[in-house]
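User: I want to check something. If I give you two sequences, will you return the structure for each one separately, not as a complex?

Assistant: Yes, each is folded on its own. Here is the first sequence with its structure:
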Amino acid sequence: MERSAHTPGPWRAGVKRYGTHDAGTPYISHGDTSSVMCFLNLSGAYGGNAGIERAKADANLAAAAPDLLAAAKLALELIDAMMPGVRYIALQNYALLNEAPLALKAAIAKAGDKP
C-alpha cells in the first residue's frame, strides 16, 4: 500500500483546559506526543460550552481517521480479491456488492489517498 501524504497515525483526541471554569477545547494530537495538530473551534455550530460533547465526539472521529483509512483500504483489497469467486456464490443483495467498493473508493479518495 502507498503511504499517504497526511501525518501518519496514531492520532488521539483530548481536551485542553485553560482554567478551572473552562469546559475545555477538544484537540487532535499525533500519537502519544504533546504535539497538537489542531484544535476544534467551539463557537458557532457547537454553541459554546453547551456543545462540548459534540466537539469531543468530532475530535474522536477525526482522530480515528488514519485507522479508518487503513481499514477501508484493507476492506477494498479484500473485496477485490474475492471478486473472481463471487459469481459462484448466491448473494442476497447484488447492489451491495457494487456499492461497497464504490463507497470505499470514494472515502479513500476524499482522504486524499489512492485505493
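And separately, the second sequence with its own structure:
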Amino acid sequence: MADRSVSGPDCPFCGGRIPWPRVMYTEVFSCPSCATGLQVPDFYKRRQQVLTFVIVTVVGYAAGARGVMLIIIILAAFAPVSGIVWYTTRTFMPPPLMVNETVDHSSPDERAQRNDG
C-alpha cells in the first residue's frame, strides 16, 4: 500500500509510493518498496520536450526575437525552461511509470531454481 504522506507516483508493480527525488526521467530507477526496475516512457519525455520547445519559441517570438536571435534564445532558454516545465507539470500530468522489461524482477529463489534446472 502506498504511503500517502510522501509526494510522488505509485509503483505499477507493487503500488508503493516513489518519492519524486527517486524518479529518474532519463534512466532506469528502482522502486524503494520492491526494487523493481522502472522507467518513464519515451512518449512522456517527448511530450515534455515539445511543450518546452513551444513555450520557449512562443515567448521568444512574443518578446520580438526573429531569425537567428530567436534560435539563440531557444537554445539558451531550453534547458532552464525544461527544468521548470518538468517540475511543474508533474503535479497535474505525472509521468506514467512502466516496469523496465530488461531487468529480472523474479525473486532470488526463482532465479536460483532456473539456474539449477
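Because they were folded independently, the notes below concern the second chain alone. Strands lie at 29-30, 37-39, 98-99. Residues 43-96 form one domain.
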